[in-house]
Write a sequence for this structure.
């Protein structure tokens, strides 16, 4: 449908929707939209379209999409003041943006990147939100270089991705911090002089505060931007201020989009499918690749150990491998061990026993890497053929790989999240 927007007014559009500008001039998060431009607004995202003059658009709305017209500037004054202050600083600038879930972090990062780009800076955007990643698939940290004004970071081409394999940093604090530090280093090496780090929304509680404090100490940003409605970041801000870190406080916009848990899950699932587009099942010999993370097998069956397990458990045993820190025992689907059998096995071993059932690996999200450790893409495990020593991955990565990192997210065949596993198998000592 056609829609006219008077100059000075703002159209708030909740996706999924498509906007085509027929006449006039619009702006979104500081990015100019010209006649002939088409803007795709994805589900769960709200885009404010400011009319710089009387404008006419074609508006196509999908299921659950909506729009409203407001008579105000969608960019808070505190955002404009903060962006101006930060961009005026010369030399290399690193900015970390903190805020609760749905506080406007991504919108501010988008606006700040556009302002910096307009000032002639070489801008890099780093996405540190494992659960609602825009630059890469869920469970990853992403780096992208901003070459032109952007409306939604989701449309950026990732330059580097670090796979963590879970959607919350609470159990993977060290890998998350190390990954973000690595991405900042890569941005600097590539010549970026303005680096914006968008962090996750885990900010409340002692563990969250300690995590963010460690993260900021590791990143060493010139500025920390704190977005808050009230004082939800006060414990963290007080600690950072005590360390002499420059804090810029800004407000959450009044018209911010709030997303429930189910919507956030649907957004993640859409992203999985995007990064698995045109995927097919590919088979890799376990002797050719290194498998680590949640699964961590070498594909080298210990025949002597297997014979001992067969004597105790019979045909329930599928595979047996001696690793550096444990013995991996793979059993047939549904097979169980009595307390007596487990005690007998443990009495013969000098390592902890890890019991996995065949099929436990199915659907787990993985990252595929080359010989240099560079991320090539994601996939899901179709199965491990222990008899033939191969692993089958559903992925669109075409070509040789050297490593498969197994995460803790399990998907079904349609890319829907089933569960997050704490770890594959059970350990007995």
């Amino acid at each position: 449908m056609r829609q006219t927007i008077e100059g000075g007014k703002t159209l708030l559009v909740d996706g999924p929707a498509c906007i085509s500008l027929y006449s006039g001039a619009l702006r979104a998060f500081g990015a100019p939209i010209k006649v002939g431009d088409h803007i795709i607004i994805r589900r769960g995202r709200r885009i404010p379209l400011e009319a710089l003059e009387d404008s006419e658009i074609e508006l196509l709305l999908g299921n659950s999409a909506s729009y409203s017209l407001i008579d105000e500037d969608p960019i808070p004054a505190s955002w404009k003041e903060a962006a101006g202050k930060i961009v005026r600083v010369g030399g290399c600038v690193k900015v970390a943006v903190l805020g609760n879930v749905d506080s406007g972090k991504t919108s501010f990062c988008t606006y700040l990147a556009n302002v910096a780009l307009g000032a002639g800076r070489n801008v890099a955007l780093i996405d540190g939100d494992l659960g609602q990643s825009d630059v890469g698939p869920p469970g990853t940290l992403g780096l992208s270089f901003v070459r032109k004004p952007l409306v939604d970071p989701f449309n950026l081409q990732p330059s580097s991705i670090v796979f963590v394999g879970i959607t919350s940093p609470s159990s993977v604090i060290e890998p998350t911090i190390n990954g973000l530090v690595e991405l900042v280093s890569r941005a600097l090496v590539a010549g970026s002089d303005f680096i914006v780090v968008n962090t996750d929304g885990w900010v409340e509680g002692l563990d969250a505060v300690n995590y963010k404090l460690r993260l900021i100490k590791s990143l060493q940003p010139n500025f920390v931007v704190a977005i808050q409605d009230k004082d939800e970041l006060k414990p963290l801000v007080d600690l950072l201020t005590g360390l002499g870190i420059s804090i810029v406080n800004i407000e959450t916009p009044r018209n911010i989009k709030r997303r429930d848990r189910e919507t956030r899950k649907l957004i993640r699932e859409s992203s999985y499918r995007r990064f698995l587009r045109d995927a097919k099942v590919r088979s890799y010999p376990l002797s050719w690749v290194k498998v680590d993370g949640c699964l961590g097998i070498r594909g080298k069956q210990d025949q002597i150990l297997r014979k001992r397990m067969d004597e105790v458990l019979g045909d329930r045993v599928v595979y047996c491998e001696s690793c550096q820190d444990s013995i991996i025992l793979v059993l047939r689907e549904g097979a169980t061990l009595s307390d007596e059998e487990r005690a007998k096995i443990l009495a013969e071993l000098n390592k902890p026993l890890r019991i996995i059932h065949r099929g436990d690996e199915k659907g787990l999200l993985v990252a595929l890497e080359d010989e240099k450790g560079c991320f090539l893409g994601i996939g899901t495990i179709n199965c491990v053929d222990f008899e033939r020593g191969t692993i089958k991955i559903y992925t669109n990565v075409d070509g040789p790989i050297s490593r498969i990192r197994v995460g803790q997210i399990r998907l079904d065949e349609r890319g829907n999240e089933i569960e997050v596993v704490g770890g594959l198998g059970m350990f007995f000592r």
Summary: Residues 37 and 249 are 34 Å apart (CA to CA).
